[in-house]
Amino acid sequence: MRERPPIADWATDFDHTDPLWTENPFPIWDGLRQKCPVAHSERYLGVYLPTTYEAVRAIAYDTEHFSSRRVMVRNARPEPPISSPPITSDPPHHRPAKLLLLPYFTLAAVKKLESKTRDVCNELIERFIGDKHCDAAAQYSRHIPVRVIALMLGIPEKDSDYFIKWIHEILELGITDNTVLMKAIYEMSEYFSGQIELRRKKPTDDLITSLMQARHDGKPLSAEHVVGTLRLLLIAGIDTTWSAIGASLWHLAKTPSDRKRLVAEPALIPTAIEELLRAYAPVTMAREVMKETFVCGFAVKPGNMVLLSFPAANRDPAMFPEADKVVIDRENNRHAAFGLGIHRCVGSNLARMELTVAIEEWLNCIPEFRLDPSSPVTWSEGTVRGPRQLPILFG
Amino acid sequence: MPPATKLRIRVDQKKCQGHNRCHQIAPSLFELDEFGNAHEIGDGRVPAAMEEKAWLAKANCPELAVDVIED
Ligand code: HEM
Ligand code: SF4
Question: Which of A108, A331, A344 sits opposite B17 (nearest CB)?
Fold first, then answer.
């Protein structure tokens, strides 16, 4: 077990797994943005933390100095880094790897999954609506992305407990425990190799078979590429959307005025969804500094990682008036919840659809609800932030 | 003929990353290709009734890829 020394000063000693950060990171970022917009910490072998939109944007666009070969800030930096194209790819390899995936995630492709997603939401609600209370993270938000991605990949829904376990081991425990992370990666790779083997005998109509049949420059993708991409789709698709749905329900549970307004004006939902994505952006990525450069006047040096906080950028008052308030009819909202530049989230249309449908169906069935004061809300740690326990009362 | 207007929109293909915010705001002005990148429909001329939406699309594009040209 790693001991976790207390934070001496957030500007020089920050830690993205500190309980204070996990519970409520916003005041930390607001403080840093004012006095030290590109903070540095010696923890995790050296890491920077930009908190302004301008700095986050500059780094996301600068693939020459900032590499995606590592996209998590952890205690270990194994060589070679674990490859999961396209998220871990830099130019020129990034683009072909991404182009392969994009057609499966267009708005039109995602629309075809909408009615099935609605059925999933209603089925889940059906199970607990009679109880007049539920854990909206464990009984609702968590299951929606798992079911949808299982459908797209063509893997059994009943394996979803494994998926959740691996993702927890990779995204949370893996920050400080490299052995647990490597084991989870190995198990996931074995799982997908098994799925590929099944399809070699009998091709199926799903994304795994499509990736197996994909060609780049006339050649099939390497087995390592296919497995790496499949791991990525599973990891990137589940905790992220789970977190976004959960955080949105959490906000509506504690903000009756917004909840009532959305029930009365469903046409506002798309605008509100963008605002909830801005305010509670779940995903913080990372980059590795490859060459010395300056970010907004601050020197950054190779050997360090950068915590690329899209959530902090989204709270920058220089970019968003009243950045710390949720304004559900905010019209000018150039938020960065799905990233900026070439690594824009492949699944952004899918995630938006799932989030919108999840909120619409919930409000339809449960227009009145509130937090259960007798039991705490808990949040996930590290890279993806969202409620993991969300006790709600209704009726 | 729809009422004339001074506005034209254009999507900079070098900047667009396919966030699809523009299409969500103004589906009659932006079309999406097989990779999800946006293109102005036709010559990008904005009908008078859509002017406000054209500005909104510009204001919400995270990549600053939407230009609104007044000529
Ligand atoms: C609300 C939910 C989601 C959020 C907030 C989110 C956020 C992000 C962000 C910020 C990035 C940029 C990474 C970077 O700059 O390094 C990203 C990349 C990515 N996301 Fe998502 N994501 C979500 C859901 C999904 C879903 C549902 C999928 C697919 C099943 C997905 C697949 C991917 C992939 C494949 C990439 C890599 C893209 C690239 O490197 O070009 N995401 N996501
Ligand atoms: S919002 Fe901007 S980046 Fe997104 S599709 Fe439209 S033009 Fe492209």
Answer: A344
Residues of B with CB under 8 A from a CB of A: 17-21, 23-24, 32, 34-36, 56, 59-63
Q: Where are the alpha helices (DSSP H) in chain A?
A: 10-13, 19-23, 26-35, 53-61, 94-101, 107-111, 114-128, 143-153, 160-171, 178-201, 207-213, 223-254, 256-264, 269-279, 310-313, 348-365
Domain borders along chain A are 10-394
- Cross-chain Cβ contact B36/A335 below 8 Å: no
Rounded to whole angstroms, how far apart are CA atoms A11 and A3? Answer: 21
HSE-CB at A10 with a 13 A cutoff on CA atoms is: 21
**Angle at Cα B30 formed by Cα B24 and Cα B36, nearest 5°?**
75
DSSP symbol at A169: H
Contact A341 B60 (CB under 8 A): no
Could you tell me the domains of chain B? Answer: 7-70 (3.30.70.20)
Number of CB atoms found within 10 A of residue B71's CB: 5
Considering chain A, what percentage of its residues have pLDDT values greater than 70? 99
pTM given for the model: 0.96
Residue A1, pLDDT > 50, answer no
Are the beta carbons of B17 and A108 separated by less than 8 Å?
no
User: pLDDT of A310-348, one tens digit each?
Assistant: 999 999 999 999 999 999 999 999 999 999 999 999 999
Q: A371: part of which helix (H) or strand (E)? A: strand A369-371
ipTM: 0.94
pLDDT tens-digit series, residues A234-259: 999 999 999 999 999 999 999 999 99
Q: What is the DSSP letter of A384?
A: B
Q: Which CATH architecture has domain A10-394?
A: Orthogonal Bundle (1.10)
List of chain B residues whose C-beta atoms are within 8 Å of the C-beta of residue A341 = 17, 63
